[in-house]
Amino acid sequence: MIRVLLADDEHLIRGAMAALLALEDDLTVSAQAATGAETLAMARALQPDVAIIDLQLPDLDGVAVAEAIHRDVPSCRTMIVTSHGLPGHLRRALASGVRGFLPKTAAAEVLATVVRIVAKGGRYVDPQLAAEAISAGDSPLTTRESQVLELAASGAAVEEIARQAALSPGTVRNYLSAAAIKLGATNRHEAVRTAQSRGWI
What we know:
- The protein is of the alpha/beta class.
- It folds into two domains: 2-135, Response regulator (Rossmann fold), CATH 3.40.50; 143-197, Arc Repressor Mutant, subunit A, CATH 1.10.10.
- The chain is built from ten helices and six strands.
- Strands 2-1-3-4-5-6 form a six-stranded parallel β-sheet, with helices on both faces.
- β3 (50-54), α3 and β4 (77-82) form a beta-alpha-beta unit.
- α2 (36-46) runs parallel beside α3, α7 crosses α10 (188-197) and α8 crosses α9 (169-182).
């Protein structure tokens, strides 16, 4: 029996996934969580075989949760489900050790099959997301430039970005300027649009 931990802050979606997985003879949902912190606590306590994690949890990024699970519960394999499957998200997830990546629009049979693949140590990436990631090419941005640009996407002021990223305002301006130059943009707003259109943030 494959024991599954489900993490999604949308109760209806999480409940639907749990109900669908419960129909499978070889799968059981051991626990459900609505936040990253809950997910980590349950993973440590229950040691599930597979954790299905929403990419965007309210308190922690899904990839960061997966990385923490890999560190603290190495026997638990992880997969990401998302309604925001950008190429940059996919690359970051795979680089962190996530074994499965699929959209929330996937069929129930696909979800169950991917859980089995991941539980056995295999890897599954939604074909369309994989094709988009390949066609988008590699991002020229550094991790910090991407992070700062992603924070800028919300329209936050430099001071607010600096606070969230634990950087000085001057350093934030330098990162934003470097990102704009690399993307051939005239300002940070244009840089954000370019990076988003290519799935790099």
